[in-house]
Design goal:
The structure holds 2 protein chains of 2 kinds. By secondary structure, chain A is of the alpha/beta class. Helix content of chain A is about 30%, strand content about 25%. Classes of the chains: A alpha/beta, B mainly alpha.
Chain lengths: ~425, ~100
């Protein structure tokens, strides 16, 4: 309990400092007056929304939770490739945050974070600031457009969508597919790992091919992969491409797109210029920009290293990072983000009461890939904390489906239904 | 006075009965809860599946453990569960089983 007095002193000092030198940070007003213990969560995706719900649920609503999210609604990235295939719409993947507010008493702030002050323990927005005892950064990924000449955020929104965050760009890519002539080329560029959702690009190739097979059978899907090989479920994807879409999908390894000609829809690699009718460039990724604001990006200038017992940043105390932004031998998936969120939520509740967190976190991941309008396959693993390595390590016995099947296609739908319920309801 | 003493005694007994449980099992329960939380993606919050998968909430503990062992050994064929089951110890099956059995259906 020595912690209490020291913290109190520190807080008092901080109070004096603020009083004496009112910095720019506190020029704004406090959005919600902080009374008791509070966790502020920035980012309401799979990780952030789950952390919000579970901190409330597991603390019996004793810890206040403020969730900051820029979008008005939650849109699921998992299964959003099926919007391209045509079995779902973005509306099917969109949900409200209302239940988190009403059922769990989570305070929701819609807005963009402009700065984070880890000394004063405050998050700044245009409309004011929020003080915290613990901060969770769940920023997902941002794109390194600068690594692809000619590409930028505006181009992605208007003509060469990455559609790697579900939403308007997914719908744009679908409409480009619909407008594509029969006999056209859909070029898909995959960045070097690590990136969000390892099997996602290969699933996307399947979904695009599924649409083309039924509507524009003379067309081609060309995969330009920056990686030396298919990074996930290789055998299963190759079998799906051969069996379901014979002659339609062409795969090229070690083919990083470094430049695009936006007007001409040309993707340039070290070896060739590829002219496409629809160009879908998924740029390299890094932790969402909010992580940089908190000063917790400390791996390769891209990702965040954390303590896997608590997800507390190795760069800053009292700042936790979960989900895709974390540097780990863990897949950047929705399920993984929720599992990390729960370990983090449990740890924060214990730490705020001066107790030690669970010393043996063990978490699971299941990712389905829809390879047609009805069939899916999965990869599943359990990850256990290894104290010697201070890392999460895959347990024995994990793996992929024996084969794709309609049973798994149905299970993939139920996975989505259950995980969305777990995150938001 | 006697009534109050009796009531106090009863309360003390009740608390006395509860405390060892809370003391001995609180941490264990939280670890079980944390373990179980990862199952929610497919089986719902606290095992309350909203469709397509087994409702684990309220499942008989021994049945749960037996099923997990059967998935692990391959005695019960599965699409996914054999891979998850192999990642957990038999002791963890017991913790998970006790946690899910305690959830109201």
């Amino acid at each position: 309990m020595s912690l209490d007095r020291r913290d109190f002193l520190k807080l008092s000092m901080a109070g004096i400092a603020v009083g004496a030198f009112p910095g720019l940070a506190f020029a704004s007003s406090e959005i919600f007056r902080k009374k008791g213990q509070r966790v502020v969560i920035v980012g309401g995706g799979f990780g952030g929304a789950t952390a919000a719900k579970y901190i409330r649920m597991w603390s019996n609503n004793k810890i206040e939770v403020v969730l900051v999210e820029r979008n008005a609604q939650f849109v699921s990235c998992p299964m959003s490739n099926t919007v391209l295939g045509g079995t779902r719409t973005i509306a099917d993947l969109t949900q409200s945050y209302d239940t988190l507010k009403k059922k769990y008493g989570i305070k929701l702030v819609h807005g963009e974070v402009t700065a984070i002050d880890t000394e004063k323990q405050a998050v700044m927005l245009a409309k004011g600031h929020l003080k915290y005892d613990r901060l969770i950064i769940a920023p997902g990924v941002d794109f390194m457009f600068e690594q692809v000449g000619g590409l930028n955020a505006a181009v992605a929104e208007e003509s060469i969508p990455h559609a790697w965050k579900a939403g308007a760009q997914t719908t744009l890519l679908r409409s480009q597919l619909e407008a594509m002539p029969d006999g056209g080329v859909f070029a898909l560029s995959i960045p070097k790992g690590p990136y969000r959702c390892p099997p996602g690009p290969y699933e996307r190739a399947c979904q695009v091919a599924s649409y083309l097979k039924n509507n524009k059978p003379k067309s081609k899907v060309l995969i330009l992969d920056a990686n030396p090989d298919i990074t996930s479920k290789k055998g299963l994807f190759m079998a799906a491409w051969k069996d379901l879409y014979p002659g339609m999908i062409e795969y090229r390894a070690n083919a990083a797109v470094t430049q695009v000609d936006v007007a001409g829809k040309v993707a340039k690699t070290e070896f060739e210029d590829v002219k496409a009718d629809v160009l879908n460039v998924i740029p390299p990724m890094k932790a969402g920009v909010v992580a940089s604001m908190a000063g917790v990006v400390n791996v390769d200038n891209r990702w965040c290293s954390v303590d896997f017992l608590t997800y507390e940043s190795k760069a800053h105390k009292k700042v936790h990072v979960i989900g895709d932004a974390v540097s780990a031998a863990l897949p950047k998936s929705g399920h993984m983000a929720t599992s990390q969120a729960k370990v983090c939520a449990a740890a924060i509740i214990e730490m705020l009461q001066g107790r030690a967190p669970d010393q043996n976190p063990t978490i699971a991941n299941t990712c389905y890939s829809m390879v047609s309008d009805s069939e899916a396959m999965h990869v599943a693993n359990v990850y256990r904390f290894n104290a010697e390595k201070q890392a999460m390590v895959a347990a024995d016995g994990g793996g992929v489906s024996a084969q794709r099947s309609e049973t798994e296609g149905a299970l993939a739908g139920y996975w989505l239904k259950n995980i969305l319920d777990d995150v938001l309801m | 006075m006697k009534m109050i003493k009796q009531q106090l005694y009863l309360i003390t007994c009740a608390v006395g009965l509860m405390l060892p449980m809370a003391g001995a099992h609180a941490e264990v329960d939280k670890h079980a809860r944390n373990l179980a939380a990862s199952c929610a993606a497919c089986h719902g919050t606290n095992g309350h599946s909203v469709g397509g998968t087994a409702v684990l909430a309220g499942m008989d503990r021994e049945l749960f453990v037996a099923q997990m062992k059967a998935f692990k050994s391959g005695a019960r064929p599965a699409t996914v569960m054999h891979q998850h089951a192999k990642g957990y110890t038999d002791e963890e099956f017991e913790l998970l089983g006790a946690f899910f059995a305690a959830q109201k259906r």
